[in-house]
Amino acid sequence: MRTIGFACSSAEEDLAPFHFDRRNPRSNDVVMEILYCGVCHSDLHWARNDWGQTCYPTIPGHEIVGRVIEAGPDVTRHKVGDIVAVGCMVDSCQTCDQCRRGEEQYCREGMNGTYGGFDVVEKTPNMGGYSKHLVVRQEFALKMPEGLDISKAAPLLCAGVTTWSPLRTWQAGPGKRVAVIGLGGLGQMAVKLAVALGAEVTVISRSDRKKQEALALGADQLLASSNEKAMQDAANGFDLIIDTVPVKHDITPYLPLLDIDGTIAMVGQIGPLPESSSLPLVYGRRRIAGSLIGGIRETQELLDFCARKNILPDTKTIAIQDINKAFDELEKGASYYRFVIDMSTLKED
Ligand code: NAP
Ligand code: ZN
């Protein structure tokens, strides 16, 4: 089907309107009219080819909320008119041990990205959510629970589940001390979710500048990583640290902040780490771990949890025409809120 999105044609160019064809819907597919799409820092990495894998032209966007406008004859989970959501994956093998466990993000054959992946049948590059329509197999469209404000909920599909998954894996809850490095889109969700799970929560930020925001989100305190004395005083203070920093950075200063058996879960930067010492790991049985988004079941669990607890990200709604300005702001890392594109601002002609 013919539709329109905002694409980038090279790492140096701004995103601009782009007409393209979505694949023809198959019997197990739904067609969505996209209503909202969140702006993740991964979209920026992808657009700028930070991971060296981008093929252009490309349309980013993997925090997608929309309305079903067509459902294939084999679709049983959704019907026309339903509000559904799509995150970072649109397909996986569905048969390997990981897919059967509901951890499609670790599919043995590789998860198929909402952008960055290729359609298994047509072999064409997948195009993301900064667009008017999406065609997706029914298993990868989540049910949007009633009561969640859909104009704000889109970031739950990536920022939400990417922080929810390590919080659940390492059992954040009452009595657990959780720290979150970087107060951006992922960071604010990590704070809200860890607080809702009953943990004691600290934001570790580059300076004190975001202190008010951190406290308003429910954190107990903000620790400025630039304050050496405060960092020393915080030694052995956390069971779990979630690191959302989007650029190459030294984790050495954060390791002594973990208590014995504590874990730092890297969810931000993907790529080489600067040299670091094993000393704080050995002298404290501390662990460095990583975590990739979350599975479909886990994402639905998160959406239902957020609906029950009335948890939504702090967002700033923008028109699609403002996406390049939003990217510039995101790159600076100065704000903590998530941009969400109101897709009604994208006209089809
Ligand atoms: P974001 O909104 O830009 O937030 C990142 C935060 O990190 C900033 O607000 C800032 O917080 C801090 N920061 C920024 N630049 C920094 C620097 N040079 N040094 C130290 N700290 C810095 O980004 P996001 O959307 O939350 O995404 C964060 C990262 O997670 C990105 O790299 C993204 O690709 C990745 N990601 C991974 C997954 C996964 O599955 N693992 C999923 C989604 C996104 P302070 O001002 O508080 O220091
Ligand atoms: Zn993302």
UniProtKB/TrEMBL annotation:
<dbReference type="InterPro" id="IPR013154">
    <property type="entry name" value="ADH-like_N"/>
</dbReference>
<dbReference type="InterPro" id="IPR002328">
    <property type="entry name" value="ADH_Zn_CS"/>
</dbReference>
<dbReference type="InterPro" id="IPR020843">
    <property type="entry name" value="ER"/>
</dbReference>
<dbReference type="Pfam" id="PF08240">
    <property type="entry name" value="ADH_N"/>
</dbReference>
<keyword id="KW-0560">Oxidoreductase</keyword>
<keyword id="KW-0862">Zinc</keyword>
<dbReference type="InterPro" id="IPR013149">
    <property type="entry name" value="ADH-like_C"/>
</dbReference>
<dbReference type="InterPro" id="IPR011032">
    <property type="entry name" value="GroES-like_sf"/>
</dbReference>
<comment type="similarity">
    <text>Belongs to the zinc-containing alcohol dehydrogenase family.</text>
</comment>
<keyword id="KW-0479">Metal-binding</keyword>
<dbReference type="InterPro" id="IPR047109">
    <property type="entry name" value="CAD-like"/>
</dbReference>
<dbReference type="InterPro" id="IPR036291">
    <property type="entry name" value="NAD(P)-bd_dom_sf"/>
</dbReference>
<dbReference type="Pfam" id="PF00107">
    <property type="entry name" value="ADH_zinc_N"/>
</dbReference>
<feature type="domain" description="Enoyl reductase (ER)">
    <location>
        <begin position="10"/>
        <end position="341"/>
    </location>
</feature>
<protein>
    <submittedName>
        <fullName>NAD(P)-dependent alcohol dehydrogenase</fullName>
    </submittedName>
</protein>
